[in-house]
Amino acid sequence: MAVVRGRLAPAYPAGLGAFGVYLRGYHGALAEWLGASARRRLPLADRYALLHWHNQVYPREVLGLVDMAALENGELGPLLSPGTLRGLEDECVTDVKAQTRAALLRVLQEDEEHWGSLEDQPSSLAQDVCELLEEHTERAPRISQEFGERMAHCCLGGLAEFLQSFQQRVERFHENPGVREMLPDTYISKTIALVNCGPPLRALAERLARVGPPESEPAREASASALDHVTRLCHRVVADLLFQELQPHFNKLMRRKWLSSPEALDGIVGTLGAQALALRRMQDEPYQALVAELHRRALVEYVRPLLRGRLRCSSARTRSRVAGRLREDAAQLQRLFRRLVSVGTRFGGLSETRTRLGFREAGDLHAPVCSSPHRRKHVAALLDIRGLRNTAARQEILAVARDLELSEEGALSPPRDRAFFADIPVPRPSFCLSFPLFLGRLPLSRLARPTLACLPRPRPPSLVRPRARR
What we know:
Layout: H1 2-8, H2 18-39, H3 44-61, H4 82-112, H5 125-143, H6 145-175, H7 177-180, H8 184-195, H9 198-211, H10 217-250, H11 256-260, H12 263-279, H13 284-307, H14 316-339, H15 349-357, H16 366-370, H17 376-386, H18 391-407, H19 416-422, H20 435-440, H21 444-448
Helix pairs in contact: 3-4, 3-5, 4-5, 4-6, 5-6, 5-9, 6-9, 6-10, 8-10, 9-10, 10-12, 10-13, 12-14, 14-15, 17-18
C-alpha cells in the first residue's frame, strides 16, 4: 500500500481516487481471508497471532500509513465483526483454562514426587507455575485491555484451584507417618521449600486480581487462604520439631537450681540460635512470621511451669531472687529474638509476670491488675506463687481481675497479651473460693436446708470381732 500510494496512485487522474480503490480492494481481500481463518479450528497460538495482528499490527503498520481522508465516511469497515472477535477470545479463554489446569497439575505431581526423597533438591514449583500463567497474562493485554482483564480472571481462577490442590497435598505430606521418620534436618528442609512457594504465588495472585475485573476478588481470597493454611501448617511443624528438642531444657526451669544457674536458658538460647541458620533459608515474609511464633511459644513454655505452681515464694527474699532471674532471662530472650530479626514482635508475658512478683506489698498489686493481660485464674496462680494467703486482700485483687474480664467479654478480639496467657492453662482452681460470690449463685433456702449428701456419713462397723484379752 505504501508503494501504491507513493508511485502508482499519482499516475491516475486525481479525481478517480485510485488509492481508495486499491485500499478498499486490499482491505476487503484481507477481511475475507481472516474471516475464513477464524471459522477454522485454529491452534491457540494461531488465534493469539490472528487477534494481535487484527487489533494491533494492521491498524498501526497498514492503516497508519493511509491518509485519514481516505477513511472518512466509513469507507473501510472492520476486518472482523465484533461477534467474530468475541468468539475468538472465548475460544482462547476456554483453551487456556483447560491447558493450564492440566499443566499445573502436572508440575505439581512432578514436584510432589521429590517431597518424600532423602535428597535435598531445590524446588522450582513456584517458578514453573508463574511461567505457565504469565505466558497468557502477558500476551492477552497486548491484544486489548478487555481481553487482558478476562485472561487475568481466567488465570486467577486456575491459580486458586491449583493452590487448593497444593494445600491438600501438603497436608497429606505432613500426615504421612513415613515422612515423620525422616531426619529432622531433612524434614525441616523439605518444609522450608514448601513455605518458600508462598510469596511468589501470593504476589502473582495479587497482581492478577489488580488486572482482572472486580469479580476476581473471591478467587484472590481463596488463593490467599490456601497459602495462609500451608504457611501456618509448615510453621507449626517446624516449631513442634524445635520444641521437642528444647523440652528437656524447659523442664529444668522454675526449680531450685534454676535460681542459681543460667544453664537451662543457655541451652534454650543456644539451640534456637543454632537452628536459626537453617531457618534463614526461608523467604523473608514467612521467616518473620515463624520467628514471631517461636518467640511466642518460647515465652509460653517458659511461663507455663511458673503458673502451674512448680515454684513457691515463701519469703520476700525468694520473691526478689525469682524476679531477678526472670529479669535476666527476659533480657537474654529479647537479645536472641532481636538477633533473629523478629521485627515488631513483642509479648509482655515474661516482663508482666516478673513485675508482679517483684512487688513487696499486696496492696501494690491493685493498680497493675487493672491493666494486666492475665485472666483471673492466672492472677490467682501468681498470688499463689507470691505466697499471698491473706483472704481479704486476695479476694479484693481477684475481684478487680474478674471485673476486667467481664468488661472485655463483648470485645471482638482479646488484647494481644491476654491472648498470649490464654494459651497457658492453669490446671487447678484458685487458692480459695470467694464466699460472697458463692452465696450470690445459690438461693438462701438451699443454704438453710443442706441435703443429706452434705452431712458426714458414719463409718460402718467392722465385721472383724476384736480378740479377747488373755
